[in-house]
Design brief:
With 314 residues, this protein is α+β, with helices and mostly antiparallel strands. The protein is built from nine helices and ten strands. The longest helix is centred in the first third of the chain and has 27 residues.
């Protein structure tokens, strides 16, 4: 293999930092290094690949077409390498007493599908040979990144908010959406809201969650975690849309109003498509079995779901 066709993880980390910050100084600070060696490393990478990755001018740094490709491909490659290391350590029991037992990490959106999650964990714990499950709460849409970089082995994902692209998955639950508002707000007394009404409530701009560290534009507050969101809603500073099951975590200062024209939220359990974990296969089967009553269809219904086995055992 020609050396120009290979990339080192160090090179990818350097390039991704610059590509995401679009500023050599900030990228160097993020990497904990001086700026000159970072600039030299990127220049050496460009020479070796024979392409220009960045456009440098007085206004700053911009990605070229080739740079855009490496940003996309490099993220995936670095995530895959990191995921391989993390999952290998967990499979070998690293960090657990005795260091010999596999552990699974399940990423979940904070406060979503709470009742379903409780039932899945209880049912799986009762299975013979069940392994330890670590529940890893996340913000909106963070489950995808956690699966890709190996922080999680499986995740409860929620369409249309999460993308299932690149993952295997099984549908568990379909539910409507609610607007979570301050209990004392006049709109909270409404029996229902439309999406347009929920997004334009005077004095209650929708909360904004980050995606890959970047917040979408808008007047609403930037939310870091579930507790912060709950407090700001109670104080009358924001509102948020959640699946119906989020009623489980509401405070007395909160109100939930159904949003009648919001798309249904479909909860899936998702996992990396290449997984061969026997423990993960067992968790998926348990999740589908626990959720089955919500998806029962009349006898003879042609849309009935096939039997599920989960990932192939390794």
């Amino acid at each position: 293999m020609d050396a120009t066709d290979t990339l080192e993880t160090r090179e990818l980390r350097y390039f991704l930092a610059v590509a995401e910050e679009l500023h050599f100084g900030r990228a160097a600070e993020r990497l904990g290094m001086a700026q000159p060696p970072l600039s030299r490393a990127i220049q050496q990478l460009e020479r070796r690949l024979g392409v220009s990755l960045l456009e440098r001018n007085r206004r700053g740094v911009a990605l070229t077409g080739a740079g855009e490709v490496l940003l996309h491909e490099g993220r995936a490659a670095l995530d895959a390498a990191t995921a391989a290391a993390r999952r290998t350590r967990r499979a070998g029991g690293a960090g657990t007493p005795g260091g010999a037992r596999e552990r699974l990490v399940l990423a979940v959106k904070a406060a979503a599908s709470h009742e379903l999650l409780q039932k899945i964990l209880a049912a799986y714990a009762a299975e013979p040979g069940a392994t330890e499950i670590e529940v890893l709460p996340s913000g909106t849409c963070e489950q995808e990144d956690m699966l890709r970089d190996g922080r999680a082995d499986a995740a409860l994902m929620h369409k249309p908010f999460n993308s299932l692209a690149g993952f295997d998955s099984e549908e568990l639950l379909t539910e409507g959406q609610i607007a979570i508002l301050p209990a004392g707000h006049p709109i909270a007394a409404r029996p229902t809201l439309s999406l347009a009404e929920a997004g334009d409530i005077p004095g209650l701009p929708p909360a904004r969650w980050p995606r890959r560290g970047t917040y979408p534009p808008g007047p609403g507050p930037e939310i870091r975690d579930q507790t912060q969101l709950a407090q700001l809603i109670a104080l009358g500073r924001t509102m948020a849309l959640f699946p119906e099951s989020a009623r489980a975590w509401l405070w007395a200062e909160h109100a939930a109003v159904p949003v009648v024209d919001a798309p249904p939220v479909v909860t899936h359990i998702a996992w990396p498509a290449h997984s061969r974990s026997l423990a993960l296969a067992g968790l998926v089967r348990t999740a589908v079995r626990v959720a089955a009553p919500a998806h029962r269809r009349p006898p003879g219904d042609a849309t009935a779901r096939p039997a599920v086995t989960g990932p192939a055992p390794r």
